[in-house]
Records
---
Amino acid sequence: MNAISNTAAVAFPVPYASDQRGVITPAVQAHKTATRRRLALGRAIPFGALIGPAFLLVIWSIGSIAGLIDPRTLPAPWSVVGTAIDLLAEGKLQNHLMTSAWRAAQGLAFGVLIGTTLALISGLSRLGEAIVDGPIQIKRAIPTLALIPLLMLWFGIGEGMKVTTIALAVLIPIYIQTHSSLRSIDSRYVELAQTLRMGYGEFIREVILPGALPGFFLGLRLAVTYAWLSLVVVEQVNATSGIGYMIDLARNYGQTDIVIVGLVVYALLGLGCDGIVRLFQERSLSWRRTLAD
C-alpha cells in the first residue's frame, strides 16, 4: 500500500514553475511548504488534551470558592482530593481498582477477540457475512444493558455475568468498524495485487489486514469506552468490590465526595486506556499521512 501511495504522489504534475533542469527552486519549495502549513491543522499543542479538563477544574474551583456550588451537591476539588488520599491510605481504593480493572480487562479481551474474529469471517466471505452479519445487527439494535436480566438468568449474578456483559458491549464496535474497513479496501489495491500475482494468503496479509487497521483501532477506542461504561452498571449488581460497588455504597450513605472520587477514577482509567490505544495506533499506522500529521 505504501508503494501505491508513493507512486500516486509522484505521478501528480508539479503545479509550480521550475528551472530547465526540472529542479524546483528554493523559493517555489518555500511557497509550497507555506501553503501546505496554511491548509493543514498546524502544529500539535503540547498537552492539548489536558486543556479542557483543566478549564473545567478551574470553573469547579471558582464555583466552590464563591459559594455558587453547594458542597452537599458537589464537594470542592480539594475535598475530593482529601477523600481520595484517605481511601488510598486505608487501601480501599487500590482493592476496588484492581477488581474493576481485572473485570474490564477480561471483558475487553473476550469482546475484542470475538468481535475481530466475526468481522474477519463476515468481511472476507459472502457466506460468512450472510451467517454472521444479521445476528450482529440484531444485537446492535438491542442495548447491552437491557440484556442484564436475561444474562442473570443464564449466568447467575456472579463474575460470569459481569464479564459477559462487558464482552457483549465491546464486540459490537470492534465488529462494525473492522468489517466496514475490510469492505472499504480500494479496488485499485486488488488490481495491483492481481498484477503482482499475489496469492490469497499474501493478499490478506499484505493488503487487506493493513487496510483494515484504521477501522480496527477506531473500534478499539470505542470498545474501551464501552467496557468502562458497562462496568459502571454491572458492578452495582450484587457486587462486593469494585469502583462501581464503592460508588453505590457511598450513594446509600450520602457520601458525595466518595461518589466523585469513583467517577474521577473511571474518567482517568478511560482516558488512560484511550491514550494507550492511540499510541499503538500511531506506531502501527506510521506509514499513513493524514491531516493531523
Note: Confidence is low (pLDDT under 50) at residues 2-20.
---
Amino acid sequence: MVLYEYPFNESIRTMLRLEHLFDRLGQLIARETALDHHFALVTLFEIMDVASRADLKSDLLKELERHKAQFNSYRGNPAISEAALDNVIQRIDAAFNRLNALSGKAGHALTGNEWLMSIRSRISIPGGTCEFDLPAYYTWQQFLPVRRRNDLMQWTQSLMPLAEALQVLLGLLRDSGAPHKVAAQGGQYQQSLPQGRSYQLLRMRIDPSLGLIPEISGHRLMVSIRLMRQDEEGRLKLASQDASFELTLCA
C-alpha cells in the first residue's frame, strides 16, 4: 500500500516538510560517495531555511506542553495503562527539554561556520560549487567517506533536538486516528467533517497496482479526494472507475 498524507494547516505542513528533509538527510549521510554527501549538505541547508521561521521553535514547545497536559489529564483512568502513560510523557519531556535547551533557532550555531556558509551561498547557483569556485570544498569531497560522514554528523547535531520534537509530535498525531475502508465512486470521494473537532492530518493508503494518483483537498468541514490516472505524456486525468482505499483522519 502507498501512503499519502495531507496536512490541514500550515503548522503540520511545515512539520511534514521538515520530517521529509530529515529522512532524506539520514539516508544520504549513511552513504559513501562524495555526490551523496554533497546532497546531504544541500538538504542540511534546506532544513536550516525551513527552520529559520521565527516562531517554529516556540510553536513546537507549546505543542509538546499541550500534549503533556492532555496525557496527564488521563491519570487515574482505569482504561489507560499508567506505565504506557508514563512512557509517553517521558518521551514528551525529553523532547521538550532538548529543544528548549537549544540556543536560538535550529541550526543557528552553523551560521558561524564561515566555510559552511561559503558553500551555502553558492550551492543554489547552477554549477556554483565547481572546484575552481570552491577549492576547499572540492578538497573536502576527496576525503575518505568516514571523515566526511563524521563532519556531517557533527554539523547536524544542533538540528537533532528539532528532529526529535518532530518525531514525537507527528507520531502522537498519527496515532490519534483510526483507519477505515472507504470507496470512491467514479473516481471521486467526499466526506463531511463533524463540527467542533479540528482535524490536522489526513492519511490515505491505496493499492499501487490500481495505478491511481490521489488529488486531495480539504478544510475544517469537508474532505475531497479525486483519483487520477496519468497518461503517456504525464498529464493527470480523472479515473472514472470505482476504487476502495484506507482513510485515517488524525485530530
Note: The helical segments are 10-30, 34-51, 56-72, 82-100, 114-123, 135-141, 145-156, 160-175.
